[in-house]
Amino acid sequence: MSEGITITVPNVDVDLLREQRDALLEMRLTRESDEWLAVTGVIHLLDAMLDVAEGEREEVECPRCHRIDTGAYAKTHIADHGYCHECLSDWKYGEQSE
After folding, report:
1. Would you say the C-alpha torsion 67, 73, 75, 78 has a positive or negative sign?
2. Residue 2 has pLDDT above 70, yes or no
């Protein structure tokens, strides 16, 4: 796996980016298949990009650990997994019991 890098893309149409993100999310949510699970990463990427572009700071609470996070990425992650990214990381590394 490669290291994370910062990618800067000039002149992004943020409204179009949001429309594309919403369309992908809607398509993924209306179909039940493993193929659409792959779209989740792209949706999270678009969420993170939109958070930066729009400065979105909507708060969302993790139902498992009650951490407060902000932005579209956190909201989508909790909707997809039922808990926040930190809980998922804890679970992967055995630091949290079910």
Report:
1. negative
2. no
